[in-house]
Design brief:
The chain has 148 residues and is an all-alpha fold. The protein has one domain (10-136). The chain is 66% helix and 0% strand. Helix 1 (11-32) packs across helix 2 (34-42), helix 1 runs antiparallel to helix 3 and helix 4 runs antiparallel to helix 5.
Length: 148
């Protein structure tokens, strides 16, 4: 058996980096390609203005992704991104409603990718961010004096 215990402190931080990367790049991508992103959101036919939904999505992805990456209020950030992943899976990757088999296949993959990411985030909600997280940092006491 591979000695996982030797590296177990690093596994949660690697997981946080991998999970947060797609949301940070996606959120920034929305900001950098605003008009194209608004057009994509509009294709979902949702009852709210596309630019408002896009702003909420970008903020959720960037703030939630940063929280998970740094391990700062990681459970809250992970919960937000789990909900976001499930919501976007249902609203934007509804493969069951597509007539084109190739498009349905691609959207089915995207749907289950989002559901799987939600599962990863729920692991953080349940078990925390792990070592190397700001949530676990020792508080700084400015009144503490050094002893020699």
């Amino acid at each position: 058996m591979i000695g996982f215990n030797k590296f177990s402190d690093f596994i949660p931080v690697i997981g946080r980096v991998l999970l947060s990367a797609i949301f940070l790049t996606s959120g920034l991508g929305k900001l950098l390609a605003w008009d194209a992103s608004v057009g994509y959101v509009a294709t979902a036919g949702l009852p709210l203005p596309s630019d408002l939904l896009l702003a909420a999505a970008a903020i959720t992805e960037i703030v939630g992704g940063t929280m998970v990456l740094l391990g700062f209020q990681a459970r809250l950030g992970a919960l937000a991104l789990a909900g976001f992943s499930i919501l976007t899976a249902l609203l934007f990757h509804n493969y069951w409603a597509l007539a084109d088999a190739q498009a349905a296949y691609v959207q089915q993959i995207m749907f289950w990718k989002n559901i799987a990411m939600a599962g990863g985030f729920l692991q953080i909600v349940a078990f925390g961010a792990g070592p190397f997280a700001l949530d676990n940092a020792e508080p700084v006491n400015p009144h503490q004096t050094a002893t020699i």
